[in-house]
Amino acid sequence: xxxxxxxxxxxxxxxxxxxxxxxxxxxxxxxxxxxxxxxxxxxxxxxxxxxxxxxxxxxxxxxxxxxxxxxxxxxxxxxxxxxxxxxxxxxxxxxxxxxxxxxxxxxxxxxxxxxxxxxxxxxxxxxxxxxxxxxxxxxxxxxxxxxxxxxxxxxxxxxxxxxxxxxxxxxxxxxxxxxxxxxxxxxxxxxxxxxxxxxxxxxxxxxxxxxxxx
Length: 214
Prior knowledge:
Elements: E1 2-4, E2 11-13, E3 25-28, E4 35-38, E5 67-69, E6 73-78, H1 83-91, E7 94-97, H2 102-111, E8 116-120, H3 121-124, H4 133-139, H5 142-145, E9 149-154, H6 162-168, E10 172-175, H7 176-181, H8 183-213
Parallel strand pairs: 2-5, 6-7, 6-8, 8-9, 9-10
Antiparallel strand pairs: 1-2, 3-4
């Protein structure tokens, strides 16, 4: 079933098995975060209406992804040559979003929620009059930032150097030379780091649930 968000025009695929029969249902648009309510009469594939009180208007300059799959993880890739990273994201089960410039990337980071962000020093060096991607990530609220796995590709340090990653406030640092020459060999260790992050976040959420229910 396909639903069009009337706030940002993103097309969202909802698996048929997740659509309640003859019942209204609601969910948050993965692109603009507005709440979409679908009435039973719309289950044939018509657009879901957004009540005016629940519309979240996206900032100007953000081009929402054409199709968002409900429940699928998303990755923002900020790189001048994103194709290898796009394949990596797909390999790990992420839907990739490629912002064209810093302005679009920064606005999208502030407005949307991404499970993974990959940024490179080359992208950061593109002339612009805004904060860097790393600065923007550092300014995000902790509730939003801790859900992201951030990879930075740069020079002068070794891949998987934890002190470098800590100093840059990212989850993982990858050396530019390794990215360019050994990306296939990096897949397994990156996947391990990502799995560890997801496990830690799962445990953290469980702990919050227990504390909240105490």
